[in-house]
Predict the structure.
Amino acid sequence: MINWLSSKLDRISKLDSYLKPEKVEQSIKLDSNENFALDSQYIMKMASRAVTHTDLREYPLEQYEEFYSQLSSYTGIDARYLGVGNGSDQIIELLLSIFGKGQEATVFTPTFSYFINRCELHGIKLNKVPLNRDNGLPEVEFLKHAAQSDIVYICSPNNPTGNQFPETQILKIIEQLKEKLVLIDEAYVEFGNYSLAKQIANYDNLIILRTLRVD
């Protein structure tokens, strides 16, 4: 038992940690969903008003239904297909802890490093497929590895390259991987050309991650 624990701790200690991007002067930082479109004083007034109208001793249970209703309206999908977490990072962690044990995952690289880090933490074998020189997705090679995996992760638009693969290409991949858990990370989809949110009801194996900041 001690040898098992020591080997686990030794493996974990050698993993790379997630590095927060440096703040660049005279630029707008968006990697954590910062919202600079709203004035900071306006946000402070909203927060102060919320505190005065909320009894902090109680859970806001009555607001859940309204929250899901608004999310449904914004995304255009039925509320029964929605699940909310404390950021997509938490949802990725939950999914990998539930479905990832002893499994394999396929990703293209470079992509969102947090997903790769969490797979390594949970001991999930990673099949990494490098993007083409133009940051395009090598579809044949990707599908070859994905077919041998259990979990497939696609960041759309991709972080850090910023490009989004053709919608027809991603739908083709999902269609051919119906027996795999496919995660489409649309954290920055508002900057993309399309969202696959409305496809969620068509595939039992598809999970789409979105992010939002409530101000």
Notes: The mean pLDDT is 88. The chain has seven helices and five strands. Residues 38-84 form one domain.
